[in-house]
Amino acid sequence: MLVTTIGKLRLERPGMVASGIMDETGHSMTRMLRSGAGAVVTKSIGTQPNKGHPNPTFTEVKSGFINAMGLPNPGIELFGKEMEVAVKSGKIVGSVYGASPEEFSYLAGKMEDYGATAVELNLSCPHATGYGMELGTDPDIIKSIVSAVKSSVTIPVWTKLTPNTHQIKELAIAVEMAGGDAVVAINTVKAMAISPQLGKPILSNKFGGLSGPAIRSIGVRAVFDIKTVVSIPIIGVGGITDWKDAVQYLMAGACAFQIGSAIGTKGVEVFDIINADLERFMKDYGYKKIDSMVGVAHE
């Protein structure tokens, strides 16, 4: 009942681990697959090791979290060891970031070599200079990157978009025009928290990305908007904590969804809980498959 398809990719369960949590090591990714996730998206990986921003990089706010990690990662060469462990247990989507079409293509090719089921292009991180959102708010740049990656790999190419723009529909259209296989929406919302006691920003980077329940409605609206302009699959992400949140994304137009912050607040069992509750809802309301819910809010 929970089987879904993202283009030609079949998932036994519609929920995936979003990039950035419980996806740094082969063993942590394996644990998430065994905990009910249909797939795991890796931490965003670059060409070289990156320490990221100095602490503090994370803070809790009302209804969410703000982080400015700065894309810390071991680099694509070392990450191959983690992929070797993870791909034995299920579907792994390799998240990559770069500063040029050539860099993205190289990284995507390495992920394919490592056995990734698909590659997710991080064109939306709001707190990394020269990467992410700085590239991903220009439709022409998106086209050039997606086109280059599509010509260098045979696995599906997904593009994760930023909500920090007035033209997310145009960005999604650019992905489709370049041959992209799916759109992932959304990444975190650019935000800041200030300490009244210290009189300065809490994070060392001053601003970061807001995640958690606070951004769910923004994500649902983005998916709904994107569904009106593209025909390629959409993967919803942002603030999902239970089956009701997941269903909102599906009915807005997503065929699958990703969960991040809720893994930290509810534990790894969040996938099994959502899977069971989602099956119960589908049975009660006569939905025989995930596909029958996708986009019903547009009808």
Protein described:
With 299 residues, the protein is an alpha/beta fold. It has a single domain, classed as Aldolase class I (TIM Barrel, Alpha-Beta Barrel). The protein is built from ten helices and 16 strands. It has helices spanning 26-34, 76-86, 101-113, 133-136, 139-150, 168-177, 216-227, 243-252, 261-266, 270-285, and strands spanning 4-6, 9-11, 15-17, 39-41, 58-61, 64-67, 92-96, 118-122, 157-160, 182-185, 189-192, 194-195, 200-201, 207-211, 234-237, 256-259. The strands form four sheets. It has an eight-stranded parallel beta barrel, surrounded by six helices. The protein has a four-stranded antiparallel β-sheet with strand order 5-6-14-11, with no helix packed on it. The longest helix has 16 residues, at 270-285. The protein is globular, with a radius of gyration of 18 Å. The two termini are 22 Å apart.
